[in-house]
Design brief:
Its EC number is 1.-.-.-. Helix content is 32%, strand content 25%. Helix 1 runs parallel beside helix 10 and helix 3 crosses helix 8.
Length: 451
């Protein structure tokens, strides 16, 4: 006989953990099912430890910039400090006891194992059947995508997980994939004196962002000594005597370590979505504005295809919880999704790129301001590269997209994200007072450049 509860949450990454805790504190009986670590990828193998690596690498770079600004400094990288911080401060040595206790203390019953849907209200975990009276929330997350490259499956490559957990900096590193994860880790290791090469299949780095963002990043990585190859197809991979060899169409690259950073994949078939009448080969789950896949069945996070970001999962989680609790209704909107690539310079963006806006048939105006031409950029000097780009729908006089690249690109993005989200008229944004001398003051210059 199935054990009955009010809500079953499958997957306890950030959004699932938050939903389970909130529902339990609201008085519902909740089961949370997790096969790995409570908290998910972000705190153990993703956003948190990777930013520790990036922070350390940026500190080294700031030390190297001293000679342009303030004198001389001798810089000696020490990866052991980074590895220690990741192991002891971020991940508790990849132990989720703290997160587990937090969840259980909120009233959630934690079930360890892999869940499989057996119906619209039932879930099986290790042979035990559970039934949900009110709702099932699916927050199954994603796994590192491994491309079908000849030879790859037989070599000891890294994904982001092994890269985060490493206690040593590889003497040389090849990164396959020039998206956010690949370039962030590439730059971090390069600043700890690894000889890094990045291989990207597209014609530019971070291909989902504005072309100008990829160009700025290319300059920055090359200044860090990173060898970047774009428009490249990997033909095969070998590993012998401690050396990886990546064969491209026109050359071969050797390295002591290989990192695969070619995106993330869902695996919804193994979750049993067929029990919901959904094709098990589907890549993402389509939801309504309340995050429902079907009545009483909700999907949040990576598996919705709206962005593999912790903030997206948390946003969708809150919408699903409000609907389950029949609280003040909230509906999902995706016209102003913010995202940040935490390289140096940071790349922050929100909404549509210029190309995306034009492809939808909007009457587009674009404005741009170069940070190096701003007073703050001039003062900042070393490490001041970047720009602000705004994309306006001329018919409505509002921004539909924006990009902020620079030393604090992700922070400057805040105002731009608000403008896109709230559809603030450009005339209102132009009438604001922008503090001087700041990086964000370049937003005013970009708005005045709209044409």
């Amino acid at each position: 006989m199935a054990s009955e509860v009010d809500v079953i949450v499958i997957g306890l990454g950030p959004g699932g953990e938050a939903a389970a805790g909130k529902l339990a504190r609201s008085g519902l009986s909740v089961i949370g099912v997790e096969a790995r670590l409570v908290g998910g990828e972000c705190p153990y193998y993703g956003c948190i430890p990777s930013k520790m690596m990036i922070r350390a690498g940026n500190a080294l770079m700031e030390g190297r910039r001293i000679q342009e600004l303030a004198g001389q400094a001798a810089i000696t990288p020490d990866w052991s400090m980074v590895a220690h911080r990741i192991r002891n401060e971020a991940t508790d040595n990849w132990d989720d006891t703290v997160a587990m206790n937090r969840l259980v203390d909120s009233g959630v019953e934690l079930i360890r194992g892999r869940a499989q849907l057996t119906g619209a209200t039932t879930v099986n975990v290790a042979g035990q059947e559970y039934a949900a009276r009110k709702a099932i929330i699916i927050n199954a997350g994603t796994e590192p995508a491994v491309p079908p490259i000849p030879g790859l499956s037989s070599v000891p490559y890294w994904t982001n997980r092994e890269a985060i957990a490493t206690t040593r900096v590889p003497e040389s590193l090849i990164v396959i994939g020039g998206g956010a994860i690949g370039v962030e880790l590439a730059q971090a290791f390069a600043r700890f004196d690894s000889r890094v090469s990045v291989i990207e299949a597209s014609d530019r780095l971070v291909p989902l962002e504005e072309p100008e963002s990829g160009a700025e990043l290319l300059k920055a990585l090359e200044a860090d000594g990173v060898n970047v190859t774009v428009k490249a197809q990997v033909k095969s991979i070998e590993h012998s005597a401690g050396t990886f060899t990546v064969h491209l169409e026109d050359k071969s690259l050797p390295a002591s370590q290989l990192l695969i950073a070619t995106g993330r994949n869902t695996n919804l078939g193994s979750l049993g979505v067929a029990a919901l009448g959904i094709d098990e080969d589907v890549k993402f789950l389509e939801t309504d504005e309340y995050m429902q896949v079907a009545p009483g069945v909700y999907a949040i996070g990576d598996i919705t295809g709206k962005g593999a970001f912790t903030h997206m999962s948390m946003y969708q989680s809150a919408i699903a919880v409000a609907h389950i609790l029949e609280a003040e209704p909230r509906t999902a909107e995706y016209h102003a999704v913010p995202r940040v690539t935490f390289t140096d310079p940071e790349i922050g963006s929100v909404g549509l790129t210029e190309a995306q806006a034009r492809s939808t048939g909007l009457s587009v105006r674009v404005g741009r301001a170069d940070l190096t031409e701003s007073s703050r950029g001039w003062l900042h000097k070393a490490g001041n590269s970047g720009f602000i780009k705004v994309v306006e729908d001329a018919a409505t006089g509002t921004l539909v997209g924006a990009t902020s690249v620079g030393p604090s690109g992700g922070e400057v993005l805040g105002l731009l994200a608000l403008a896109v989200h709230a559809r603030i008229p450009v005339s209102t944004l132009r009438s604001m007072i922008y503090a001087y001398p700041t990086f964000h003051r370049a937003i005013e210059s970009a708005l005045n450049d709209l044409q």
